Amino acid sequence: MKGLCSSGSQMTDFRNVTPSLIFFILLFSLFGCSGSSSGLNSGDSVTNDPTFSATPDAKMLLVNLPERREVVFFEKGSYELSIDNQRVLDPIAIRLRQHPDSQLIVIGHSDDNGSDEYNLTLSFERAFSVAIYISSVFGIEEERIQLVALGNDEPLSMGNSEQAKQQNRRVEVISPKAIVRTLSTITGDERY
C-alpha cells in the first residue's frame, strides 16, 4: 500500500520519511505550540500584573508650551504671503499639528496709507492669508485660529518714512502659553 498525498498535479511519496522525522513532527505539534516562551504560566495574563497600565500616565501626555510669537511683513497694499514669510510661519504651524489643543492668534496690521476702512480691510486680508496658509498647508482646523484686524490702530513704528511704514505692514502670529496634550514624543524641543 502506497502512502500518497495528492496536491494539484504533484504527488508526494511519504514512504521515504524516516520514523524519527515523523516522531519530531508529532512531538512539535503536541507540545511545541502549547509551550510558553514568554515566561507566563498557563492562566496568567498581562492584565493581572498590578504594575501594568493599559493607559499611560496623563502627565506624560501633557506639555507646558511657552508663548511663541512671529511677525511677517508685507509689501505696500499687498496681502500676498511670500516664500520667506511661509518659512517663518512653518515652525508655528508644526507646533499646532503636534499639540492639537493649542490655539493661534493672528493679528493683521497696516500702515496709515489710505482710509481707515481700506486699512482695516487690508489688515484683515493679511491675517486671513496667514490663517489660510497654516490651515490649508498643515491641516490645522480653522476653529483653532483667531483672526484680529487692527488696521493702522497699533503702529509698531511712528513716522512717515518708508522704513517706518514697512514696519507697520505686518501680521503678528501668536501661539499663547498653554498646558496642552501633545502628539510629539520628543521633549524639550524648543523650536515648537
From TrEMBL:
It comes from the Bacteria. The keyword Protein biosynthesis does not apply. The lineage of its organism: Bacteria, Pseudomonadati, Pseudomonadota, Gammaproteobacteria, Vibrionales. Residues 61-179 form the OmpA-like domain. Keywords: Cell outer membrane, Membrane. It holds the Pfam family OmpA. It comes from Photobacterium lipolyticum. InterPro entries: Bact_OuterMem_StrucFunc (IPR050330), OMP_bac (IPR006664), OmpA-like (IPR006665), OmpA-like_sf (IPR036737). It is found in: Cell outer membrane. Its main location: membrane. GO terms for cellular component: cell outer membrane. This is OmpA family protein.
